[in-house]
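A.,

Following up on our hallway conversation. Structure tokens first:
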């Protein structure tokens, strides 16, 4: 891994919520930027109207995009997630998806509530910054 995740003792434990407070990237490390991935199939259409299904597919798609660079979710240092009409249930779904994808040490993450995304049936989108060793 080409980055270090830090959750300072003076801040709350963010891990149950699927994120960490900070990350350090050493000089000379390459960055890979992945644009917003949503719950789409290979034809670009949304796979389900169900929020959890869209989140799962979006993370699968993120994994495919990272693999194209020889990376996986362990290389992700930051996520930005966009949620239509966020609530605690949706935040829990996101936290669980991040923990499944990343394990006990999630990357940094900002969740942004939005009124809508690029198409009316998209409920969730995730973009990432990853580091290349």
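Then the amino acids I'd put at each of the 133 positions:
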């Amino acid at each position: 891994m080409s980055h270090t995740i830090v959750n300072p003792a003076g801040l709350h434990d963010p891990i149950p919520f699927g994120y960490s407070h900070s990350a350090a990237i050493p000089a000379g490390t390459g960055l890979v930027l992945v644009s917003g991935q949503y719950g789409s199939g290979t034809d670009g259409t949304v796979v389900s109207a169900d929020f959890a299904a869209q989140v799962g597919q979006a993370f699968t798609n993120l994994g495919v995009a990272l693999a194209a660079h020889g990376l996986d979710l362990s290389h992700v240092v930051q996520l930005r997630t966009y949620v239509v009409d966020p609530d605690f249930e949706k935040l829990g779904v996101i936290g669980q998806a991040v923990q499944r994808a990343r394990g006990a040490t999630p990357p940094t993450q900002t969740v942004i509530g939005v009124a809508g995304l690029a198409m009316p049936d998209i409920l969730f989108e995730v973009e990432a910054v990853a580091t290349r060793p």
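Residues 32-132 form a domain with the 60s Ribosomal Protein L30; Chain: A; fold (CATH 3.30.1330.40). Curious whether your intuition agrees with the design.

B.
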